[in-house]
Amino acid sequence: AQKITQTQPGMFVQEKEAVTLDCTYDTSDPSYGLFWYKQPSSGEMIFLIYQGSYDQQNATEGRYSLNFQKARKSANLVISASQLGDSAMYFCAMRVPIYNQGGKLIFGQGTELSVKP
Amino acid sequence: GAVVSQHPSWVICKSGTSVKIECRSLDFQATTMFWYRQFPKQSLMLMATSNEGSKATYEQGVEKDKFLINHASLTLSTLTVTSAHPEDSSFYICSARRQGTSYNSPLHFGNGTRLTVT
């Protein structure tokens, strides 16, 4: 069965420092996609970064990078140079294939990140 | 960009009444829309997947007669919570996949609807 696990309910980081948010997944499908979303207190879901299972290199988007370790089934998000505006809930998600419909996203439990000034 | 508008952003209703939530893709066509439910400080739980012109596919444990989903056009999906009860109070979020994009393209989310049933 497909599953996404985030084991850190809450994290603190000092402003301007880097932080790693953990995510592990389980799937038997060789083709899958992994996503990270940010959810501020307003509730909107903001897409951050994507990693495909066949991608050879780790994805990067500005201050966000994804540490993809396929053998360990982990896809950790690294945020460099944290900013106060990074304080939010962060969700790891995995695309689960649906026959003839592309796929659906399942989400991990989330990590609440607090950036301290 | 790809904008998904969800309306209303919040609603309070009395127990036993029905509430309709709309999800519109404003600048793209969406063949597939997804409805999620989220409790405070918890994960997003997928309720159902809807495809334009066909019946929605509900996740296990979601009552299809209670949560009616209609996807009548490529830009509009609606979720109706029928005979709402206090335990239905939650944050409901819709998302959409742009028509013609790959399966690994990110979903575009609405801003959510906070439902409170009194």
Would you kindly provide a written description of the structure presented here, covering whatever features stand out?
The complex is a heterodimer of chains A (117) and B (118). By secondary structure, chain A is an all-beta fold. Chain A is 0% helix and 52% strand. Chain A has no helices and twelve strands. In chain A, strands 2, 5, 6, 10, 11 and 12 form a six-stranded mixed β-sheet that branches. In chain A, a hairpin with a 6-residue loop joins β5 (33-39) and β6 (46-52). Chain A is globular. The mean pLDDT of chain A is 93. Chain B is mainly beta and 118 residues long. In chain B, β7 (67-73) and β8 (76-81) form a beta hairpin. Chain B is globular, with a radius of gyration of 14 Å. The N and C termini of chain B lie far apart (37 Å). The mean pLDDT of chain B is 92. Classes of the chains: A mainly beta (117), B mainly beta (118). Chain A binds chain B through residues 33, 35, 37, 42-45, 47, 50, 52, 89, 91, 95, 97-98, 101-110, 112, and chain B through 32, 34, 36, 41-46, 49, 51, 57, 91, 93, 95, 97, 103-104, 106-109, 111-112, 114.
Tag the structure with descriptive keywords.
heterodimer; A: 117 residues; mainly beta; 6-stranded mixed sheet; 4-stranded antiparallel sheet; 0% helix; globular; B: 118 residues; 7-stranded mixed sheet; 53% strand
Largest sheet of chain A: 6 strands, mixed
**Radius of gyration over C-alpha positions of chain B, nearest whole angstrom:** 14 Å
Give the number of helices of chain B.
0
Q: Which radius of gyration of chain A do the C-alpha atoms yield?
A: 14 Å
State the end-to-end distance of chain B.
Answer: 37 Å
The overall strand count of chain B is 11
- Name the poorly predicted regions of chain B: none
Task: Name the assembly state.
Answer: heterodimer
Structural class of chain A: mainly beta
Overall form of chain A: globular
What gross morphology of chain B would you assign? globular
Q: How many β-strand runs of chain A?
A: 12
